[in-house]
Structure formats: structure tokens, C-alpha cells
Design brief:
Protein-Tyrosine Phosphatase, Chain A; 5-stranded mixed sheet; 16% strand
């Protein structure tokens, strides 16, 4: 089972999830899953289409914004808008959760959120966002 790492009251990030993790996410109140991992990165990776089918079967929304490397400004904007428009709790995942939390952090920073708070939330979730810096 993947580890869901809370970032905010409504957002958690996770390493790669499986079909079984979808049901666990639904049981925890997740209403939207965001996939930030391109298919085919790893031979054992559950395809996004399979995660989406499981999510839909659980009554969850599913959005795929695959990220290679650091998120682009367009990806950051899309993910931020998707999170803000969610009707409940959100789970974003990629290989390790780093791309998901990076996209969130960049969106928050661009929207003017306090960078120290962003870095602190990242650290509490187990991710080093100190690169975000003061500017």
C-alpha cells in the first residue's frame, strides 16, 4: 500500500498507487486523484488508465497531468486549478510524490503563499522544498 502524506487539510501526495490504494483513498475521503506520473516509467507501474478505472468505479474524479522532470508553468497552473476546483479531498501521486508536491508548491508560491509555510508543509510530509527559497 502506498503512503498518503498529508500536505494541507485537503491535499495529500503519494508515491505510485495501486488499484487497492484507490479504495483506501476513497475510504479516507478522497474525491479526486491526480496522476502526475507518465506511463511506462517503470515496468511494474500500474497504468494510469487502470487507476482511473478504479477511481471512477469508486465514484472518484481522476485527472492526469503527467510530469517529466520539473513541472512546466502550464502543468503547475493546471494542477493548481484542479486542486482548487475539487469537491473534496485530493490525492496526487507520481513515482515518489516529489513531482506532485513540487507542482503544488510552485503553484502556491506563484499565487503568493508564504514560502516558509510551503517549505514547512513539505517537510512535514517528508519532502525537502528548501530549494523554493525566498524568491
Amino acid at each position: 500500500m502506498a503512503m498518503f502524506r498529508p500536505v494541507t487539510d485537503t491535499l495529500s501526495v503519494s508515491p505510485q498507487i495501486t488499484i487497492a490504494d484507490v479504495a483506501a483513498a476513497a475510504a479516507r475521503g478522497v474525491t479526486l486523484i491526480i496522476n502526475n506520473r507518465p506511463d511506462g516509467e517503470d515496468a511494474g507501474q500500474t497504468p494510469a488508465a487502470d487507476i482511473e478505472a478504479a477511481a471512477r468505479a469508486e465514484g472518484l474524479d481522476f485527472v492526469s497531468v503527467p510530469i517529466v522532470g520539473r513541472p512546466t508553468p502550464e502543468q503547475v497552473a493546471a494542477i493548481r486549478a484542479t486542486i482548487q476546483g475539487a469537491r473534496g479531498n485530493v490525492l496526487a501521486y507520481c513515482r515518489s510524490g516529489t513531482r506532485s508536491i513540487t507542482a503544488w508548491a510552485m503553484g502556491e508560491a506563484l499565487a503568493g503563499a508564504d514560502r516558509a509555510d510551503i517549505v514547512s508543509r513539505g517537510a512535514a510530509a517528508g519532502y525537502d522544498l528548501s530549494w523554493l527559497g525566498p524568491t
